[in-house]
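Replying to the earlier thread about multi-chain prediction with a worked example.

Input:
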Amino acid sequence: MPETAPVITVTNLIKQFGRFAALRGVTAEFSPGKLYAILGDNGAGKTTLLRTLAGLNHPTRGEVSIFGKKNFREICPELGYMAHPSLLYDEMSGMENLAYFAQLYGISDSARCAAVIRSVGLDPELTRPVGQYSQGMRQRMSLARALLHDPKILLLDEPFSNVDVHSATDMVHLLARTRDQGKTIFVVTHQATLLERAADEFVWMEAGKITARTRDFRLREGAR
Amino acid sequence: MAPPTGILRATLRKDLRLEWRSKDAINSMLFFSLLVVVVFSFSFDPNAEESRSIAGGLIWVAFLFAAVVALNQTWARELRNQVLDAYRVSPAPANSLFLAKALGNFIFVSVLEALMTPLFVVFYQLRALGPAWQLLVVAALGTWALVVNGTFFAAMSIRTRSREIMLPLLLFPISIPALLAMVQATTAILTGEGARFWMVLLVTYDLVFTTVCLVLFETVLNAE
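Result:
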């Protein structure tokens, strides 16, 4: 349970796709300024939970409250979302992509785009289209897009997939620094060991429910 | 947040840039219309007077079918890498996206019309007996009628499995009044009769459907 006022409160959240229930009554509170690793097997409901927090899935029942607000239009400027696909246009360069998405948030400063691209370890001068990037570069550019408007909450779905160990470690350090600036970060991942030291809490999901929340990754992993 | 017109301009610019680089829509539309002109010219061998009475129908049917090709492409590029989700999680208004897409399609179809009309004139020995400038007004109003509904229904069908079939099934029936007005107005101008009634009908159609599409688009965009 959070020690301070929760930044996100999820109450009896149920999400059904037809007859299949992806989330089966999730209730949880999450504190600000923490890095949460959401773990679980395929089909446990991790991505559905993240998409529901991002406002992309509408709850079938239950509710999500972020900063005490339930209207997604009011909350969305405070959310940064990174999905498994890149959410980038393959035909445009990284800088062109970010310049476009920046305008959706009212940012017209190209220096901000360049700074975010540099912060994920890429070169803003790179002119080749994102479609020609390696998978790891695409993931990092996708993270840059999520960080672009300096959101208070980051929702990251599999940010380390297909990223080499060195780059993944750099990304973890960046996330830890971002967390230290007071942001709340949710990372859905199958590579929990990468977050072993950086994460504040490991949230374990199984069959659409949160089954455990541990501070030590190995406590629960050992019991599995 | 940026003003809606700023987001509209940025999205339109981005779409024009993507089309300039990929030429997906314009190439397929051009080849399709070219085929229609050639096939029709082999099928009919009208004299100049007969041409005036059938050209309106031939031209608009060719443009309608060709426009469907472009309209199918409109949202396809937003689905690759799930880029549409990046827009949905942003505070940008849905209507800016819709209007940018509709304007982009208007430009693509207008370019097609500008390139194909001279061919129709040559193949069918067309010469307007009425005021030829009115053809430009009919073209603008008719093209908007096609693209505004087409953009809307293309958005509705993006989550269906057979979206390329679904779009014409939804678009053609609802476009019948506009198509009738376009054909009759064009024929009336070519044969030297008055086209005022049909032009007023087109203006009314455009106003009604643009309003309806703008009112409903946010629901369509956020549907699961």
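Strands of chain A lie at 8-17, 20-30, 35-40, 61-66, 79-82, 153-157, 184-188, 201-206, 209-214.

Feel free to reuse this layout for your own posts.
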